Amino acid sequence: MNNQDFTATILVDQTARQAFDAINNVRGWWSENIDGSTDTLNGEFVYSFKDVHRCRIKVIELIPAQKVVWHVLDNYFSFTEDKSEWNDTRIIFEIAEKGGKTEIRFTHQGLVPAYECYKICNDAWTSYIQQSLKNLIATGKGAPNPKEVETEA
Length: 153
Fold this sequence. Notes:
The chain is an alpha+beta fold and 153 residues long.
């Protein structure tokens, strides 16, 4: 049986350590709407996007210049019948030096085509990894979701 988990791979000219540091700067490439610690082993953070998506993630593995693994503890999507499709999935960044470049292999283990959110999540992760994260590593400037301003009712 072939693996259907979502994956994306990028190659950059920067070092494995620079890639590792950029990955852990989640506010620099995914979203400025992150509360909590994204770069500490066993740290937890919450990602939110309007009233559409919220998830709580625990950092379960940090190997400098080699690997970052997150465990999705809780998840909510407003647009799916099953609001918790990402629950108990893992988000894995594997970093390796290859031919004078650095390869980052991103895998969302458990995000499979059978999920209702797969197409939207596939498109979003592809953009975040192949554009925003890659640009953050290469230039120091990613394109995360901007900080949402809370307004009083």
